[in-house]
Amino acid sequence: AEPTPPPGAGPSRSRSPAIRRTSSHRLLQFSQELKAGVSRAKQISQDLTKRFTRTQSRAALAEPPQPPPAAHPPSGIESALAARAERRQRAQLDRTKSTAQRAIKGLRFISGNTKASNNAWIEVQRNFDRLALDGRLSRADFPQCIGMMESKEFAMELFDTLCRRRQMQSDHINREELREIWSQITDNSFDSRLQIFFDMVDKDADGHITEAEVKEIIMLSASANKLARLKEQAEEYAALIMEELDPEGLGYIELWQLETLLLQKDTYVNYSQALSYTSQALSQNLAGLRHKSPIRKMSSKLSYYLEDNWKRLWVLALWIGIMAGLFIWKFIQYRNRYVFSVMGYCVTIAKGAAETLKLNMALILLPVCRNTITWLRNTRAARALPFDDNINFHKTIAAAIVVGVILHAGNHLACDFPRLIDSSDETYAPLRQYFGETKPTYLALVRGVEGVTGVIMVVCMLIAFTLATRWFRRSLVKLPKPFDKLTGFNAFWYSHHLFIIVYISLVIHGERLYLILDWYKRTTWMYLAVPVGLYVGERTLRFFRSGSYSVRILKVAIYPGNVLTLQMSKPPTFRYKSGQYMFVQCPAVSPFEWHPFSITSAPGDDFLSIHVRQLGDWTRELKRVFSAACEPPMNGKSGLLRADENTKKTFPKLLIDGPYGSPAQDYSKYDVLLLVGLGIGATPFISILKDLINNIIKMEEEDEASTDLYPPIGPSKASVDLDTLMRITSKPKRVFKTTNAYFYWVTREQGSFDWFKGIMNEIAELDQRVTIS
Fold it and tell me: Which long-range contacts (CB under 8 A, 24 or more apart) does 447-453 make?
């Protein structure tokens, strides 16, 4: 039997290197979870490393403990203390700005969502007045007072720690004491947060942290960060921490070790694994790259930039060149006309801007012709045109339209009209054919057809442009009722339909132009004919196609994080690629609104599925109407609301339209995939992962089938089987380029992983070749 380790000794030192490497890497995983995504990369340069001297108070706290008095102190304890003291002297803490900031992020859970601002303290005072009826706030009400109700257990532990530091025995505090505690909680300095963290762990205030105390703080921090699975493994992680930070086997760790771990995690933790030859060679190559001259660095950056953006650059250059050409053409044209002597450069600039407006009002419709773009993605045009940037190009054109409107309308209203009105009768005489026998007044010019249509267009475009900005579309602007209806996706959606009025006014405005008499010189309709016709055709196609796609709701589930999953029947003619999206309309919510959602089912599935997260008014209402059709969990077995087609309640009707192309649909062109998803943004990758596995399995089955079809060709059957063999060998072999996929999914809460739990389990079961990691 193995000898029992002496009391107080650390974990067994007889572990194999492989086990220690595994433990160290698991410790690293814990450190990442605890520090909420702190970077694992080592510091390339430590030129800014600074030594520092601790204050006397902290030095006293971190001073190595003296062995307990005994008649015969064991020599092992003395050697362990000496080894730790020597290791402490060797520890060189990096307190550069970047390192300290990362360490502070690792301790940010201490203050939760609290903010060190006057407004925040005012809110805390209001909560204190409401909760502390007798002028004293109880421990139970402390989390609600400081706004940490989601981490109530952690907040009360924080209360106990700060009261213990002040040697307060009562479970109630007054306003002054709350103010002092609040200032400590909202102190974002590394030293303050580290001391609070250490005090929370060190319950007996002896300056030592034992394994039991480490386990308790892991459970508290897991609760504060909503890491349910980490809570379940708290004991295991506590043992790993003690094994790594307490190699001497003293049974406790000290403040300086915790500080070193947070500031220099990668240099302090011994991963017990030497670099491979490949890693060493790569490090040497990277070291050589760091000594490039400034010119070489600049040329490299320029080369990479051109390689990544050459499609965007040539399209933008062509577009700007065409606008410049049209502007110069009109500028020169009116520079050589008589009207220039009356209105000067104002009219040349206004007319030049008007010509660019015609072009841009036509082009702005093309990036939102989604069916056309989806079709073009599959042609050779995709090699030269950046279809992935269609919405960005749409926004860029909108910005150019704003500039054009300012130049055109501004010069007309502020310069051209006043100069025309102030002109003499002799100067005005050649212009009577355009403005009438009598010189018009300023009001007459504005009230004319040209002026009225121009004002209507400017007002409509101003409304649509404002409500389409990020602040209004995402409800970042908080307006009082009833003006709050002007924010959100609904306001953006409906205001954008003012373009119908804009284009009607634009055609009328273009047909009643001043200074032009010949109809063929009024070219507005020529610019608009093809783009408007194409866009109207697309909207008509959507109307009829959505009616032909009949879908039936098969399953509904509502997951933590306000995520609604809809599984519906797949129309026979609905064919799509992984990574594409479709538009969904629910008449029970709104008979006019269509919203895009990534398709999370694979093309090989016999159903369609989408995952919808509640982010706005429309998605909130959609979740409500489907929640009403779901049945509550039976016997409290699950907290999820679920329903299927066998449910007695009737599901709301859904209409779909699509599919539409997206950048992710071309994943099969690449050998290795790196998929990075944030929250609900991982939806297109779920379809890709499932489709990837389905394609690999299908390819393997085809290979096996083709092998079975080759019959043995003997002398007597050679002539008979020759035709069969030729048909088999002439059939093109299915080739799937992608060999590996790496999927990284980052969420705020661990409960979010339940969104795709069933799909991911299915993928893991089918992935026998470990293609996905």
Answer: 448/512, 449/508, 449/509, 449/512, 450/509, 450/512, 450/513, 450/514, 453/505, 453/506, 453/508, 453/509, 453/512
Provide the percentage of residues in the chain whose pLDDT is more than 70. 66
Is residue 153 pLDDT above 90, yes or no?
no
Question: Do 713 and 649 lie in a common domain?
Answer: yes
pLDDT tens track for 645-671: 666 667 888 888 888 887 777 777 777
305: in domain = no
Examine the domain organization and report whether 640 and 666 are in the same domain.
Answer: yes
3-state secondary structure of 749: coil
Listed residue (192, 127, 204) closest to 164, CA to CA: 204
Q: Which long-range contacts (CB under 8 A, 24 or more apart) does 523-528 make?
A: 523/358, 524/358, 527/358, 527/359, 527/361, 527/362, 528/358, 528/361, 528/362, 528/503
Which residues have a Cβ under 8 Å from the Cβ of 606 and sit 6 or more positions away? Answer: 570
Q: What is the pLDDT of residue 624?
A: 86
pLDDT confidence of residue 191:
67
In a 3-state reduction of DSSP, which class is residue 23? helix
Angle between helices 683-709 and 757-766 (to 10 degrees): 30
Distance CA(64)–CA(75), nearest Å, equals: 16
133 and 270 fall within a common domain: yes
Domain range for 334 is 319-542
Average pLDDT over residues 548-563: 81
- 292 contacts: CB under 8 Å, gap ≥ 6: 300
Query: H-type helices in 63-189, by residue range?
Result: 75-90, 97-106, 118-131, 142-146, 152-165, 175-185
Q: What is the Cα 416 distance to its own chain's centre? A: 48
d(CA 354, CA 350): 6
pLDDT tens string 448-461: 888 899 999 999 99
Q: Read off the pLDDT of each residue in 277-304 and give the average, rounded to a whole number.
A: 63
CATH number, domain at 182?
1.10.238.10
CB atoms within 10 A of CB 288: 9
The answer on 553 and 538 residing in a single domain is no
For the segment 700-712, the average pLDDT, to the nearest whole number, is 61
The amino acid that residue 10 corresponds to is: G
CB 761 within 8 A of CB 688: no
Q: What is the residue type of 655?
A: L
- Whole-prediction pTM: 0.60
The reply to whether 617 and 715 lie within a common domain is yes
Q: From CA 128, how far away is CA 145, in angstroms rounded?
A: 6
